[in-house]
Amino acid sequence: MTQIQDPFRSYNFKIVIQGVVEGHFTQCSGLGVRLGVIRYREGGNGQLTRALPGRVEYADVELKYGLTQSHELWDWLMSAVRGEVVRKNVSILMLDPQGTAEVMRWNLLNAWPSQWRGALLDAMSQDAALEHLTLVYDSLERA
After folding, report:
1. 130-136 and 25-29 beta bridge pairing
2. Are 67 and 34 in contact (CB under 8 A)?
C-alpha cells in the first residue's frame, strides 16, 4: 500500500548566499524557468506549424527580509550600482516539517542583485519593516 505524503510547508526554508546561511528572509518568490518557443511553418505544408525550443529564461527571484543593521546585502547591491557586479551562488533550501533537515535545494548560479525596494514606513502600523531584493542569475539547478 502506498503511503500518502503531505506536501512541504512553504514557511520552512533557508537562503544560503556563498555558503553562509542568511536566516532573516521572510519570503522568497518568483523562482522559475521558461523555455522559449520558436514556431515555423514547414515548407510545402502551409497548414502545419512546428515548434522548436528557443532561448532559456530564468525568472528573477525576489527576497523579502526584515530590516536590520546588517549592511551585507546593501553593500552587495551597491557594488553592482558602481559597475562592479559581484556574482555569488545562492541556494534556496526547503526544509522538512520540523524545519531541521534539508529536503530540496535550488541553486541560483552566478546571482547578483538587480533591484532593491525599501521597507514601507507607516507610523500607524506595527508590522515588521521588510526590504525587497531582486536577484538575477545565469542558471538554475535543483538538487
Report:
1. unpaired
2. no
CA distances from 14 to 11, 51, 62, 105 (A): 9, 38, 14, 10
Return the C-alpha cell found at 13: 526554508
Q: What's 77's DSSP letter?
A: H
Set out the domains of the chain in order of their start, with CATH numbers: 13-142 (2.30.110.20)
Cα 36 from Cα 48, distance rounded (Å): 19
The per-residue pLDDT for range 10-33, each reduced to its tens digit, is 888 889 998 888 767 889 999 999
C-alpha cell at 51: 515548434
The predicted-structure confidence for 100-143, as pLDDT tens digits, reads as follows 889 999 999 999 999 999 988 899 999 888 999 999 999 999 98
